[in-house]
Amino acid sequence: MKVKRRTVWLLTLLSLAAVISVYYVFEPNRSVDLTTIFTDDTLQETTLTGVTEEEITTTTSESYLFDEMRMEVSNERDQLRTQLTEKIASDDYTAEEKSAAYNEMNALIAQESSESMLEMLIESIGYSDALVRINEEKVAVSVLTEELSSAQANEIIYIVKSEIEDAQVTVNPESNYY
Q1: How far apart, in Å, are the Cα atoms of 7 and each of 11, 12, 15, 19, 21?
Q2: Total-model pTM
Q3: 8 Å CB contact between 156 and 143
Q4: Alpha helix locations (H) across 26-94?
Q5: Closest CA to 105 of 133, 79, 85
Q6: Lateral strand order in the sheet of 168-174
Q7: CA-only gyration radius of the chain, Å
Q8: In terms of Cα–Cα distance, which of 122, 131, 119 is closest to 152?
Q9: More reliable by pLDDT, 98 or 53
């Protein structure tokens, strides 16, 4: 009897879903009201159980300057990604050109993930917001702070160089007032 690969994946997925659902149904000490997920209530009207007021923190950016810069870069990259996707899907290009476009798209995705990861790492050492831009082997880091000591700049440079070894790193402090 020959079983299709799609059938095996479907059965695996269904069995995994069944195991997870049984686990959550019989999990002890569960005080979650699952009906709140499907209501039209706003977040303010919904109560959180098991969370104290000290544990609730907001994750908003203090600087709209970085948000605007991120949006501009995101729009440019979306346009480039669209062009590359059209190039890959088109019959007008050779296999080598399509392969180059595919490699360029993968490099763009890797660059975006590296920038995001570095921003999170820099924010984890105490800065409220950070903006990282990678351009070939040059990395520009802007952090939201009033003043930046050389020790703090060296710490940021160390974090960046631990992820991207041969990078030329510049660190710029940005004020919250723009």
Answers
A1: 6, 8, 12, 18, 21
A2: 0.60
A3: yes
A4: 64-89
A5: 85
A6: 130-135, 138-144, 168-174
A7: 23
A8: 122
A9: 98
Q: Torsion angle of alpha carbons 147, 151, 153, 159, nearest 10°?
A: -140
C-alpha span between 161 and 155 (Å, rounded)? 10
Q: Are 98 and 37 in contact (CB under 8 A)?
A: no
171 beta partners: 141
Tokens 């609730």 belong to which residue?
Answer: 56
State the Cα–Cα distance between residues 97 and 32, nearest whole angstrom. Answer: 53
| Matching residue, tokens 């921003």 | 119
Residue 155 parent element (H or E): helix 150-163
Each residue of 94-112: pLDDT tens digit? Answer: 889 989 999 999 999 988 9
- In degrees and rounded to multiples of 5, residue 171 shows phi and psi of -115, 125
Judge contact between 112 and 99, C-beta under 8 A: no
Torsion angles phi and psi, residue 97, rounded to 5: -65, -40
DSSP 93-134: S-HHHHHHHHHHHHHHHHHHHHHHHHHHHHHHTT-S-EEEEE
